[in-house]
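Bug #2210: token dump truncated for 4-amino-4-deoxychorismate lyase?
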Amino acid sequence: MRVLALLDGTLADPDAPLLRVDDLGLMRGDGIFETVLVVNGKPRELDPHLDRLARSAEMLDLPEPDRASFERALTLVLDNWSGGTEMALKLVYTRGVEGGDGTPTGFALGLPIGAKVLTQREAGLSAITLDRGIEPGLAERAPWLLLGAKTLSYAVNMAALREAERRGAEEVVFTTSDGSVLEGPTSTLVTVNGRTLTTPPATLGILPGTTQAALFRAAEREGWTVVVEPIAVVDLHSAAGVFLVSSVRKITRVHTLDGKPLADSSAIHAELADLYESEY
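Reproduced locally. Full output below:
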């Protein structure tokens, strides 16, 4: 099942044409998006997602998204959803048609969670490390690269996932050219050592994670130490647990990295999953 709502407050047929062929989101990937997890009709971290949508728009010099219009559209999706208890809610915002009057294109789309993601939540996954061609400080020196914005330009991320599949893995951990960890193509990386959770800093040019932030809040409340600092790739193999987290995948453990088994983090995964769910 899918539900599509437009920013003017109307529903649309998700199987009917919507975008013009000259929409810049289609032609050039010139747009932004957010994916919100909805559980039992309730969006998780909605305000942080809408805040991040606005930050991404600012980075791309897009008109500021009309928050009220997006909230109206997503409410329409929620009110008309009759699928499972979980849904991926996508908020999409493009620069509009090429040569047009500058009016952006925007919509909210409700989708079911894929079976592959649901399986990986429970069983974990294998990943490989791939160089993203980014070095420390690049985000500040070259803001036009839009590092840290959630844009529609995901061709590189999808190519990386295909490369992982060719190598017999399921996911990717992007790295800097000097061997520091960045993020996954669609996720934030978190490591566990003892009672400490660590994630790389956004200053490296990665997307600040809404799910990671929720997990860290819950962990701090229960006495964990949370740290935002660079992580070396070599340290992933000695960590007590390595996890990829995102709105849709929630907390997913990495059990194999670059063909080498990591420490069994099943018990840690269960604890972190409970911590995350305690936020809701």
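Output looks complete on our side. Residues 116 and 249 are 10 Å apart (CA to CA). Marking as cannot-reproduce; reopen if the truncation happens again.
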